[in-house]
Amino acid sequence: MTTTSTQADGSANSAAGIQERDRVTVRFAGDSGDGMQLAGNRFADATAVFGNDFSTLPDFPAEIRAPAGSLAGVSSFQISFSKHLIYTPGDEPDTLVAMNPAALSSHLSALAQGGLLVVNEDAFTSGNLKKANYPSNPLSDGSLDGYRIIKAPITTAAIAAVDDLGLTTQNAERTKNFFALGLVYWLYDRNLEPTLDWIEERFGRLPNIAEANRRALYAGHAYGETTELADAHVRVPPAVLKPGEYRTITGNQALVLGLITAAHLADLELFYGSYPITPASDVLVELAALREYGVRTFQAEDEISAIGTAIGAAYGGGLGVTGTSGPGIALKSEALNLAVMTELPLIVLDVQRSGPSTGMPTKTEQTDLLQVMFGRNGESPLCVLAAKSPGDCFYMVLEAVRLAHKFATPVVLLSDTYLANTAEPWPVPDLDQLDLIEVPYRRTELTDVEEFQPYARDPETLARMFIPPGQAGLQHRIGGLEKADITGDVAYTPENHQRMTDLRGEKIQRIANFIPELEVDGPESGELLVLSWGSTYGAVFTAVNEARDAGYELAHAHLQYLNPFPRNLGDVVSRYRKVLIPEANTGQLRMLVRAQFLVDAQGYNEVTGQPLSARLLTERIVQYANE
Amino acid sequence: MVLQTPPLQTVESMIPIAEQDLSRKDYASDIDTRWCPGCGDYSILAQMQRGLADLNVAPEKMVFVSGIGCSSRFPYYMNTYGMHSIHGRAPTIASGLKLAREDLMVFVITGDGDALSIGGNHLLHVLRRNVDVKIFLFNNRIYGLTKGQYSPTSELGKVTKSSPVGTTERPLNPLAVALASEATFVARSYDTDPQHLQATIHRAAKHHGAAFVEILQNCNIFNDRAFADYTDRDVRDERLLYLEHGEPMLFGESKNKGLAVSATGLRVVEADGPDAGLILTHDATRPSPDVHQLLARCSYPEMPVPMGVIRQVTAPTYGDYLDGQIEVQKFRNRADVAGLLRGRSTWQVE
């Protein structure tokens, strides 16, 4: 572990002639094999150490290796960094690094006129131009005249830099992402140290490769320094973050840490049953590497088995968790209903992706809300939570585990592709400051086993008395058939079914008594409330503030608890003349809010596979405020 | 990392023993059984209760997990823990339970539709993983609970409610499926031979690893006498082959016939004939499942129908491997949640 200290003024060599800016957004785009994700992640690390606030947006094709140079194979990584706190990876980049014509063609439309374009001119061969459907070379036909452009011979310069190391041509060429990174480091005044450390750690056992990457990085940096790029030399001063120890974190990493921490706080053994599915697979992969924490990962034969094993572990008194994405939830729904009927503390992570069907596996969407609310037979209420940022995934896992045990219920936690892959600085939590998680069956003291009734309920929470197998005298059977109230025997009477239906519903509603009320940012009542949920938090927060800067007075509230809603939500939405609900779906929360509170909420809806655009949302807020 | 083979502590499963001596009634719950009068399930339930009483297993340490179907009502009638789950998925729930709770003895009760149709995938995988659960498949070659449709073990051409002019699909052979799934314990018994059934239950219960037992079970309502041609009292000696490890494969009223290898599989030879020396001795522990597959495929009327333990080999269970990995990793790395939260690198903001 390394800890680096950032001085108040950053570690930059503040050279003369450098321009200062509040915020910059850079997008790296290249072939899937060009190492753009790696370059982007290194840039994020260097930016973290420098002390900016930042947010990243990786975007890659579902194909592992599409044909080289093809449009289908373009992979990108965007990072926005700022001297202020920021909440999105930025709508449009100020700078686009395009490693080949396909990358340029796919991403140029996102670059504002006058933006900075860094291109690898070596890759603009007639073959690559053809693959990107360019009739002529954009570097020479004048079509890029509206942009500031740096044409760098990235491939040949990288190869020249590692010339005498005896690498194969292929390996020499592979260093071009480090050359590009070095160049961008110069442009934005980043320190090379964190990346040099990383190269040593990663490639230390392959000294030649490590040396090649180092040289390419230095060469790119020197290229920036010696070529006349002074007008592009920009510095973004460090942000004023709350003091403390920070790390970078993605949503999926936060889910993993949350599960390990929850198991620790609840003193339960973690069992994670999962079937590989984009974008949730990383959770399985990372947990599998943590056996020393007693983690039992189980790569199941299918999604159904994944949840079945998690139910088995939960029934056994472990921390039973399954994780998947939307198509997997569809397959798990019958078993999820078994957990509803048997009232077991089960955790289901749903890292949502674009649908329907296979959809766009690597793209983001908030389209599973109604599926997890209603996608099961019968009246089947369960608890639904949603994380609002990568770091928040950690805290919402703790909430999910707390509520699942307190109420003996399955809990679905919604994340999505955007949160899963986005990285941000995260204050490292102090483990000792986190609340222990209570596991009710441990404190059940039964003086007389005759008194035990598996469907007797806690009067406050209505949680049933869940007891895992193993205790003498308490043997009983549970299952998917309707249960008799209190005894848990099989029952078919009309009165009992009505009562149990009501109890299951009421139990979930009572969760509202044990979660925080919804907080409103802005006026307590008035003209316009913007109500959001899940991963759109950053974009909505940004848009709301931009609208405020433009002179509009409005309130913003963000939901992390979707079922039940915070108990004051009805009151909150009734205090504003207009309610706008932005979502990356066609209006799923809006449907719930309208149905439950009879409020004429309007929507702002994007279903593009990309995170919500703060700029477009700002326009919509302003338009709606003016209506 | 190379997979470390955990040492085999024991070939036999650790059976949690009750503190007092228990009898059959201690394993019976107070729920009234609701199978049709005359159903083969009654005998299986009785033998299970007797068999467990013989072993004196602690009832609170046992969990019966079932799917959906007539047989899957079984857990309600056992005074143990139990879950009557959803169709075909019992092996998954049992796997998770056993991996989370090594101290429990976990049973799966399933049927031909539950295990081989809707739950076919899970059966393959629980067996190949060798999770330490005991699977009892009650095979009556029909869907009973839904009132008489054909099942994946119904014979080709069988007339049922959903096949009024006969089925058009060939049946699965449960034992062959289990062997192909790398099962470490494969056995067959039937409802009307209590002694044999009890003995088979004992052996399955004691096996360390996934045990698969097919129990031929008569459905007197929708598929009566499905196995009568070879299990009826007056013909069974002639038509069943009772397998015992280490014993020659002999059958017939006076053990006058035996099985020998032929060019194309197995064949019946006279025990006092010229080929008597070729009669096979049953080796359930044989690593290769070749002869076991040939036995599994013996069917009436061409061949005697094998009963008993066809295969029992020792292998580490899924849980052995998993626990072994956890132990090794705990030895190599310190579990430090606070350190994990900090990750590979952090920075300090002053």
Describe the protein.
- The complex is a heterodimer of chains A (627) and B (350).
- Chain A is of the alpha/beta class and 627 residues long.
- Chain A has 4 domains: 19-235, Pyruvate-ferredoxin oxidoreductase, PFOR, domain III (Pyruvate-ferredoxin Oxidoreductase, domain 3), CATH 3.40.920; 247-433, Rossmann fold; 440-514, no CATH class; 520-626, Rossmann fold.
- In chain A, helix 4 (154-161) packs across helix 6 (176-187), helix 7 (193-203) packs antiparallel against helix 8 (207-226) and helix 9 crosses helix 10.
- The relative contact order of chain A is 0.09.
- Chain B has a domain at 24-226 and 317-342: 3-Layer(aba) Sandwich (Rossmann fold), CATH 3.40.50.
- Chain B is built from 11 helices and 12 strands.
- Chain B has helices spanning 41-55, 90-100, 112-118, 120-129, 174-180, 194-206, 228-231, 236-239, 290-296, 318-332, 337-342; strands spanning 62-66, 81-84, 105-111, 133-139, 185-190, 211-216, 240-242, 250-251, 257-262, 265-270, 305-312, 345-349.
- Chain B is globular and about 90 Å long.
- The relative contact order of chain B is 0.12.
- Classes of the chains: A alpha/beta (627), B alpha/beta (350).
- At the A-B interface, strand 1, helix 1, strand 10, helix 9 and helix 11 of A face strand 1, strand 2, helix 2, helix 4 and helix 10 of B.
Q: What's the arrangement of strands in the largest beta sheet of chain B?
A: 2-1-3-4-6-5-11-7
Overall spatial form of chain B: globular
Helical segment count of chain B: 11
Order of helices and strands of chain B: HEEHEHHEHEHEHHEEEEHEHHE
Predict the CATH topology of the largest domain in chain A. Pyruvate-ferredoxin Oxidoreductase, domain 3
Main sheet of chain B? 8 strands, mixed
What structural category do the secondary elements of chain B indicate? alpha/beta
Helix content of chain A: 25-40%
Give the CATH H-level superfamily of one domain in chain B. Answer: Thiamin diphosphate (ThDP)-binding fold, Pyr/PP domains
Q: Termini separation of chain A (Å)? A: 55 Å
- Count the DSSP helices of chain A: 21
Task: Give the domain tally of chain A.
Answer: 4
Structural class of chain A: alpha/beta
Largest inter-chain interface?
A-B, 79 and 62 residues
Q: Please state roughly what percent of the residues of chain B sit in beta strands, choosing from under 5%, 5-15%, 15-25%, 25-35%, 35-45% or over 45%.
A: 15-25%
Beta-strand portion of chain A reads: 15-25%
For the record, the CATH architecture of the largest domain in chain A stands as 3-Layer(aba) Sandwich
Q: Whole-number average pLDDT of chain A?
A: 94
Determine Rg of chain B (CA atoms, Å): 22 Å
